[in-house]
Amino acid sequence: MMKLTEKGLRKLIREEIQSIKVKNLLKENNIISKLNAVKSKLSPLTSLMIQSIIDDKGVIEDLDNTGNFVTIEDIKLWGDNKLVLTYRLYNKKSESGGYQTIASFYGDVDEIISNLDYLIFNVVYFRKKKFEDIKIDFKTNNKVANKYSYSNRFNESMNEFVNVDDYLKDGGYEFLHSYGLATLKYGGKVIAKGGEDFDGVEDGYLMKHSSWRDEKVFDTARDVINYFKRKGIKRK
Description:
Number of strands: 12
Largest sheet: 6 strands, antiparallel
Helix content: 25-40%
Mean pLDDT: 79
Oligomer: single chain
Shape: elongated
Low-confidence stretches: 156-164
Order of helices and strands: HHEEEEHHEEHEEEEEEH
């Protein structure tokens, strides 16, 4: 069996990340198509509200600064008195979420769509089943969250794909180099930061940690993780 070099491994990782991006772009295009199909059946004023969701790539954010936002996975319009919405809810502040909800809203469709963000974040979120003349049935799967990590899902949802130059995960350690910035996490929490070592070894990294007086230079992502593992550093 041929042994992969560090360079070859990094290439495979980049190809896998690119494959994930393509798959999610196809999913995004699919939900845009579904939103457009619903939009075509609505009044001009209400269709503008759907267009704003389309412009945000199927993402609806809670404007009350809770950090909550949802990514729409499916939307269906039944006549003029029923809207079925499938979405996943995340929270930017806690970097958590991914559980899927299927909500059926019964009532005047114009009223449903006009109040859609309120219905999601202030009614269904608090497990209420009625808002004024709108009735609601919903089911949330609290057992299986989305396989994507919060950070990946949020960036993809907002159409802000991270330009990943180097990525490596080993045990609880996770190294990411993107747009010249490098971060090392342990258990999902950032424990060290840094960047490219432009004046030193090619493709090297200058990393900072609170226990060090000066920055340390590492040749590769593997070197970074190996050092922290060897020293048993798991906190900032």
